[in-house]
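Example 3.2
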Amino acid sequence: MFKKKMERFINETLTGDVQKNALDFAAWLRENDMRLERQTVGYWADKIYFICSYKSEYVCYIAINECDENNFVVWSDDSGSAWFENPALDERTREIALNNVNICDDPSACGSCKLGHGTPQTMFGREYPSVCLTALSFTNPDAETVACMEKLFEIRKADILGG
């Protein structure tokens, strides 16, 4: 179930196009029956951070103002699935997705990756030696990038439904 809490945080902390695009994405999540759960323990206790899932499977993670003011970040989860290896995408969507692959080039910078480093992955038909467990990272996505994220997360949703 979608909670309007995230929209309240977006309205209270983001401005301009960042706010508009974040609200558009939040509306898409709601329309697609995504569940958002705010994380309020450990490292995330004092931050505005949500885990997004569909049918108990992770889809993405969302942070608001985590690093900078007026900052909206969405990360995908690689989920141990091959959903992002080579999906059918138009060329522009594929280009946007490739520009947002989360390369793990500094093993000490991220706590998400196993043993402090990424893993080899094929992302949208391209091979990478070290991709973070949060395989895609979108910071302050513009409207075109939000549309790309929605297409990608539709593919993830189909992956979940397909088992």
